[in-house]
Design brief:
Layout: H1 2-38, E1 54-59, H2 61-78, E2 81-86, H3 97-102, E3 109-113, H4 114-122, E4 132-137, E5 139-144, H5 155-164, E6 168-171, H6 174-187, H7 190-193, E7 197-200, H8 205-210, E8 216-220, H9 221-224, E9 230-235, E10 244-250, H10 257-267, H11 273-278, E11 282-283
Length: 290
């Protein structure tokens, strides 16, 4: 009886142990399969996170006012959020668009003077075939609000005004480079005006005039219009005028190439013309480089 009871006890104890071993083996087999079912990477492609619907744009002074309006319109129409950075088209300041790209700042689209965009394209920083002219901008003249309006109606009148002015300011961007290197020479007053003139980096020329730091200032009309405390006399005479094309391009390092191109399509379309004209520029006919 004692031996029988011991035999029964061993048999009863072995049964659960056997079941336990089978359960362990089954668990080892099924575990990878269950894990695969719950692994997010094993789901359909639609579950993969999508990049944020956002574009980073660097734009220079002449196009700033128009783009602030157009960016809001584009966001309302498409839902794409636009992150805007402002900076000069050229020059030695750290905020200049070429300098910002050289530092590797996040940017999908740049909008700046055509000559600066072409230079960036030659450096390989802009995707080939994406450059497009957006607006044409002219140079205007301003004095401090309340000051007498000098005569700039003809090249000769502008020449006399520059000779008489105690101080003159122009920007360090496309319009100012033209004034300093070309227009003053054409008027024959370079030796008289350059010593009393100032090329203003980064700061809008209109602000310098508004503070009384220069009696007369030259800059793109679209950059002078938003400034308070100045009086815009008019445009530089046609014989001396320099028309600057402001153009956009897709940054070569951008991971959002197609979305960036779609934004440029909008900016160069008829939908953008009203905002461009309101800012003091004229829309440019679409012109894409190869």
């Amino acid at each position: 009886m004692h031996r029988l009871m011991n035999s029964d006890a061993r048999t009863g104890a072995g049964e659960p142990a056997s079941r336990l071993r089978r359960g362990v083996v089954l668990g080892l087999v099924l575990a990878p399969l269950l894990a695969a079912c719950h692994n997010p990477t094993a789901r359909a492609p639609s579950a993969v996170p999508v990049a944020a619907n956002e574009l980073h744009v660097l734009t220079s002074g002449g196009f700033n006012a128009a783009f602030d309006v157009l960016a809001a319109q584009y966001t309302a129409q498409t839902g794409t959020r636009i992150v805007i950075g402002h900076g000069p088209s050229m020059g030695a300041t750290a905020n200049a668009i070429p300098a910002r790209l050289a530092r590797g700042e996040d940017a999908d689209v740049v909008i700046l003077a055509r000559s600066a965009l072409d230079a960036l394209t030659a450096q390989g920083r802009i995707t080939q075939g994406t450059s497009v002219d957006l607006a044409l901008s002219k140079i205007a003249v301003a004095v401090r609000e309340g000051a007498p309006a000098p005569d700039i109606s003809t090249p000769q009148a502008l020449r006399q005004t520059l000779i008489a002015a105690p101080s003159v300011a122009w920007s360090d961007s496309a319009s100012g480079v033209y004034i300093q290197t070309t227009m003053l020479d054409r008027l024959g007053v370079a030796d008289i005006v350059r010593p009393k003139g100032r090329m203003i980096p980064a700061t809008p020329v209109g602000e310098i005039v508004a503070r009384g730091e220069a009696q007369i200032g030259f800059q793109q009309l679209s950059e002078l219009k938003p400034v308070k405390g100045i009086r815009i006399i008019g445009l530089v005479p046609d014989e001396l005028q320099k028309v600057t094309a402001f153009s956009g391009g897709v940054v070569a390092s951008s991971p959002r190439q197609q979305a960036a191109r779609s934004l440029l399509d909008f900016l160069s379309s008829s939908k953008a013309e009203a905002a461009i004209r309101a800012s003091g520029m004229e829309p440019a006919s679409q012109k894409v480089t190869p």
